[in-house]
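Quick start: read one record
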Amino acid sequence: MNNLANIARSATPGDGVQFQKQPYGPKAVESFLRDVLAMANASVDGPRYIVIGAEFDSRGRKRVHAVSEKDFSGKPAYEALANDYIEPPLRLHYKPVSVNGKQIGVFEIGDCSDRPYMMRIDYSETLRRGDAYMRLNDTAIKMGRRQLQSLFEKKFQDSMPAQNIEVGFAGEISHKTLTLPSCDLSQLPSALAASKLEQLVKIQMDTKDSGSTTVMARLVHARLYGSDDPYVSRTPDELMQEMEQIRHKYRNHDRHFLFENNGQQVQIVVCNRGEEPIVDASIALVLPKDDDLYIADRLPRMLQDGKYVDRSATEMASYPSVSLHKKSIHVTKKIGDIPVEKPTEAFASALRICVGPGLIGRRFGIRYALHGQNLRSPATGTLRVNFRNRAG
């Protein structure tokens, strides 16, 4: 953190350092992606930095502007945006630092030795798949064919082929196909709670003309909730309003049900059969999106003494990055160096998956791409997942 503060205080604009007066925010995502690409492709050694909340006036004097705490809250999720739109994957971190008593932000971009970095998919009409930028002095320049070809040739000369890399599911032996059991989603805590409220609404509606509504509602309440839960009179509208809030109220219970009690922990293993270690490896998975496929986007909170408590920051950081798209789910994780002939787990904390009954008998393909600083091209392929009844 001290290093970031020193960069913010003393650095000047150049190929590896950029200053910006205001945060990007949700309206300037395109500018953010373009600037990150330009910094990542800059011809400098080591990390690069984008300092948010500082500018230089016409006389070269630095002016500092405080950055709101909200810009570090994940809206927009800057690191996830970079993972979603830029390839190969980058190490990008955004942290607050204090300069002259004001809080500003610094993006730190990793050593970027896997150039060129390019747009993986279209973001807009003016920032398309395959676009690449490079920072020269204090300007982002769009890279042309000759510049890209030069970087690709250098990368090819210094790289190793990908055909000797094996990627599969963990087990006694690495395998390409995994079978996952289904789960009865009708037992979700929120679903059970909603069912009870529906019964209370029904009994009130069925008996409203008989004059025995309160008596019947008390009896049904006692049957559903037991005698220890006192009856509280509520109108059908109040019960319906409570039903609308069920998922929020039971979100921790549901996540614990899905990813602790009934979830499957899926681990990917990489085996390097080459002659040298894979340097600075990372993996990306793409799965089809389905209403009955639940993948945790973070580790669920832990249940201790009847209360849900947060996990440590280290434990949370060990879990893969999961992002939901319109038709697919993307999973990415930095692995680090992969030694020769030593099976290496891709995830420090295994991916949590829960399967609903709608997937029984179906089969999904999971596309993977393993990137490495010294790989000539990513190691790519497809893994298969079958779904079965839990009792089958």
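The mean pLDDT is 87.
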